[in-house]
Queue: 3 jobs
Job 1
Amino acid sequence: MHAVSDEQLIQWVANGDVSCLGTLFDRYQDGLLNYCWQLTHNQAVAEDLVQEVFLRLLRRAKSYRGEASFKTWVYQIARNVSYDHLRKQQRQQTDTNEPEIVNDAVVDERSAEQAAAGQESLGHLADSLASLTAEQREVIWLGRCEFSDYRSLATALGCTAQAARVRMHRAMKALNEVFNQLQGAKLDV
Amino acid sequence: MSDSIHDDRELRELSSEQKDLWEALDGLPRREADSGFRRRVMHAVHEAHDKQQSRWSWVNFLQPQARTAFGMAAACLIGLLIGRELEGADDKKVDDRVAELESRMNVMGRELLINRLDAASPSDRLAAVLAAAEYAGEDSMISEALLTRAINDPVSSVRAAAVTSLGQGVNQREVADELLGLLQQYDSPTVQLAIIDALLRYGDPELVQSLKDRARQQELHPALSDYVSESTARTSI
């Protein structure tokens, strides 16, 4: 529990006190960075997206009505920013017909880290998660690490609580399947 | 049906084949930004804010003389309005407003302090380090900023002051461990003395023992080895 609530801070930002964004940054940068990374799998891009989130917060502070919690609002913004980027990236790839190479680099980096730590099973889990679609990764990550109830998760995802529940079940099922395949492949070797 | 994701039975049953799968997600490595990330984002935010201000402030369009006159008139008007409002407000409302202003001042003060710790001028950084001592034990962001000063500041007096400021508020083992680690990095006796003082004040027997070992193995400045032996003997740690 913070002495000054997020909602109060963003209200002060709306009134022109930009320094309060620094405190909000301290509270949310880790969560947002990891969320954006889950969607993009690129550290530099994720950092740029988090910066864009805070620039949008500055521009839109006055439009925050307090109907949803600040946290769900900021994740809605992060979601829009990230999907804008993914769409743009997809367009560029279609235009240039260049293959996607970013994920390969990420997998290499992760494999090296985890091999060193000897956490093979965790490595499989990370690989399984990485192989899911952005929508599936997003619902699992937000549900596991950021929101504890379907209602907040649904608000951040811009859908109903029931839809969030269905998406979560499907995503977990997909994760489970890929994870089992990877574990099975390990046993076969 | 429960609204809580973690109590979702279907989800737990689904993952029963790999029942720890859901929990294991917690163990996935987290991404961390480098120490300059905050500065970069806040710089971009302030730049955007300045741009926004210069674009939208219609007062900028007024002539300087007219702007002064306008400013004075606005100040008078605001003063009158505040006076009228306070006159009619009940005590609770005033208390709430004072509390709000206090919280706001705290947030602003903290931001200013963290920014000043990064100032270009060593004397500004030194002043900020001394001022930050008061909050070192209470505010993790300030402790972290002080630790960065203690590790990275190019000026040894600022490093020593940062360690001293940290030492006054050391109430976390991690901070004490970081300080102990710094002993190996620096051979400046001033910085080493500040670290030793901070660790002795923290008083953890394990850390004090580690200090004594280093003194014995002559890893410290000779005068400081004696200082450690005397201090620990005096306090019979």
Job 2
Amino acid sequence: MPAVVESNDEVTAEAKPRKGWFFNPYTQILLSIMLSTAAQLCLKKGADKSVSEIWLGVEGLRSGWVWLGIGAMVTSLFSWLYGLRFVPLNVAFNLAGLVQVLVPLACWLLLGERIGPTRWCGILLVCAGVFVVARPLMRVEEKL
Amino acid sequence: MTPLAFLLVVISDCCSLAGQIFFKHAMGGANEIKATKLAAGVAIMAVGFFLWVGLMSKFDLSFLYPFDGLNRVVLMFAASIFLKEKMTLNLWVGVGLICAGILLVSRS
């Protein structure tokens, strides 16, 4: 009898996230979102410094910023996959839509890009659209 | 934004989408096929990635990033053509919002 109880405990333990705030799946989803925003900023910084022609993005590899960006993207993917094991898919996808706002916000605050009202309106419309299609898109992605 | 740059954005979006689909399919199936699909996914994603980095050197990131939303539009149309997925009113509204947003951004 005790052996059976033990193995049952193991099964439930596996299905639960690890203890501690860092392993909270929502922390990981948020971390993933921040990292993918940071990745875009790093790539932009690197591209500005190293790429000479529009079709020569490969030159970006000369810049440490681009490598940092790639690292952030990969880490973000792992956080995302971990979080997705526990967070409902539609919640995760809606949170991911936040990136559409976070990236321009960070561009304004950290890169000093000037964003006029027309662009802000466009950004918000795109974001709204991304939220509207998030749910049906999930269904489609499962089928692909 | 020049038509060429717009074309590059769309190609980059399609590449990252195709890469994702390859990755997903690499999860199942026999090992050899898995490796091929994984390699194809990495290759096509790299093409999309470098196109994106190239574009970044010429445009503001706040200008460029909203075009990432086109991903969803391409995916929706691909799904309705290849998977015979029904285009619901919800989807049309979303696609309309994204396209209107991108139009505004491209004029800013």
Job 3
Amino acid sequence: MPDHASVGWIDIIVILAYLSITAYLGWLGYRGTRSAADFLIGGRSAHPIIMAVSYGATFISTAAIVGFGGVAGLFGMSLLWLTFLNIGVGILIAFIVLGEPTRRLGHHLGAHTFPELLGLRYQSRAIQIFAGALIFLFMPLYAAAVMTGGSVFAATQFGLDFEVALLIFALITAAYVIPGGIKAVMYTDTFQGLVMVLAMLFLLVFTYSSLGGVTEAHRALAEMQDMVPAPLAQIGHQGWTRMPAFGWGAPRYDLWWTVITAIILGVGIGVLAQPQLVVRFMTVRSRRELDRAVPIGAVFILLMTGTPFLVGSLANAWFAQHGPPLHGKLVQVLDPEKDHALVELMQKTDSGAWSAILNPKTQTPATAALIVTERQESEDVQGSRLELVGGRSSVVTYVKGDADKIIPTFIATALPHWFGAIFFLALLAAAMSTLSSQFHTIGTAAGRDLYERIAVKGQPREPSIRVMRLAILVGLFIAVTISYSVRQEYVIARFTAIFFGLCAASFLPAYLGGLFSRRVTKAGALASMTVGLLVSLFWLLLVKSKEAGAIGLVQLVTGGKTSILADHPNWPAVDPIVIALPAAFLTLILVSAFTRPPDEEHLQRCFPETR
Amino acid sequence: MLGLDDPFVLAAYLGIIALAVLSILYGLIRRNAARDEITEEDRQWALEEKKVDDEI
């Protein structure tokens, strides 16, 4: 789509400068204080900016920026509710309510991984192994989302094939996470976080100013309400500045259930039970440090998610005003006053005649809504006269409905090329800080929570570095394979939502119960985790049509349908978290009520403060 | 207001700004409110964490 996609000398210089600074900071950190643990050992306090930005950089990745930003481009500004939860739940509740109890419990029990925290709290090797296995098996899905986001951007920005971009991205990731980058070098994380902040600020200001200011930009987007593509309008899309239609029992409400339950709740709540984020609280020195990190964390998340969600939505207005002209045959006038029209898209052939552009899925002429700017008499390839209309459309038309390409295409088309290189670095920073913590978590899950815990002849095994490294390599290979093979509708956001939802349903009840209740039992926690996981998997395999349809098992069971509840709208659009999380909480409460509570001595060790 | 007609979208737009402001106020008010001391247990935990980190 962008006509200036290439790698220039400026791009190479900017990227090399960035990598050199990162390497230098990493080397500096390697020699001295580098991680949160070093700060603690030294008895010093990490600056709240370092703590908050490093947490935020682990949280935010290309999945949020490219994946969810693209979803906002498709579905509109309702995605801002995810930013609301990201700040309200991911920062305020996480830091203020969960941070200090997690830190204290982790230190009292000597836990260093999330599965270990759960295992020690409930005195259960099975719980630790269960959690470690779940992380090892499913974290690569989330890592794949992050890698796809970076690769789609690099492919669009530098005019590469997706496969080539993915290979390069995988090599950079391997070089970063295998030799030393995997160590939590907080200065490097902070530098990367600051690059991300500056890039987002520029992007936000540029987008609003190029559309005439905040109110004007929103108004322009609101006026495109009738230009929503028909397939989206049929499932409840009411315009990019409006919430999807709410209701139950008809396909026209599907989008509301998709946006609210999968995109917003799944990720918004799921963040509380993200293993790589929970362990961050244990590396904090004190409650005071957590309190001080709240403002910076909130502003960081506001910029990192609010900006792409706004820019993704506003990209529709930008392309409708400044995008490359499109042409087509008039099908229907949508709004005569605004000159909005539905056209069958056409392209000029070498002979100068116009031929229809076919929709690759349906092999019928592709249609799109245009803001008409020109009309002319012309002729098609059959030699028939036609009234050719020209104009511009929403970004959704330009990316052919592929949400993952919306942010990359907007950056490559609308912004100066030098900014594309900077933004790529911001994305690389976002990806690397998240990927390093993901692979660190995969490594420790395999080594510490699985290998060491799975006893041989009743004896736990000695720590094995080789197992951890091997697990990281296997995880990387799986993530790249998934990223290479699965390219479907807004797959980045969906993979992220699946992983966050699985973590929430499987871990959240047991985690919260472990922090705040003396009555929750080992059996209750294990049963809750099992129910959360099984209900989620059942829903993903057989009910939620997008995922179940892609996996394929449900078609075998139902004889071709994409959900066992296909005849009961809107169930196939509902995310597993809506069913699995309450089921897991209920299981925790019920099973704990009927099983023997933990012994007082152990509880005293967990909560010595409440003597 | 702000060119946003849908009250739920407007609420989200203003809500994220309000939450960020609330977070800033929280940080300012609680700046020195909580205790800040490192116990021997914290230090032992950090030493073990460093060992795990270094091993990888």
